[in-house]
Amino acid sequence: MQDFARHTAGMAQAQKSILITGCSTGIGRDAAETLHQKGWRVFAACRQKLDVEALVEQGLTDALQLDYEDESSI
């Protein structure tokens, strides 16, 4: 067991990922920004293209346009 612990101690932890919808404003946006700052890979979803572009400018490069009413965006 000690060999295993010693072997895995130097390995980098896998980056955590999350998909958050409603990231244009409010709780969704705050959650996306906070988790991104804490090192998570955040897939921040918004319905409007301009909101996605604003998130990308902030460094949330995995922001995406997604609207559950638009099947082609899913």
Question: How would you describe this structure to a colleague?
Answer:
There is one protein chain. Helices cover 39% and strands 16% of the residues. It has 74 residues and is an alpha/beta fold. Strands 1-2-3 form a three-stranded parallel beta sheet. The protein is globular. The model has no long low-confidence stretch (mean pLDDT 87).
Strand order of the largest sheet: 1-2-3
Order of helices and strands: HEHEHE
Number of helices: 3
Largest sheet: 3 strands, parallel
Low-confidence stretches: none
* Overall pLDDT: 87
Tell me the span between the first and last alpha carbons: 45 Å
Shape: globular
User: What oligomeric state best describes the polypeptide chains here?
Assistant: single chain
Number of strands: 3
Beta content comes to: 15-25%
- Give the fraction of residues assigned to helices: 25-40%
Structural class: alpha/beta
Rg: 16 Å
Notable features of this structure?
three-stranded parallel β-sheet, alpha/beta, 39% helix, 3 strands, globular
Concise summary:
With 74 residues, this protein is α/β, with parallel strands linked by helices. The protein has three helices and three strands.
Write the layout of secondary structure elements.
Elements: H1 2-9, E1 17-20, H2 26-37, E2 41-46, H3 49-57, E3 64-65
Parallel strand pairs: 1-2, 2-3
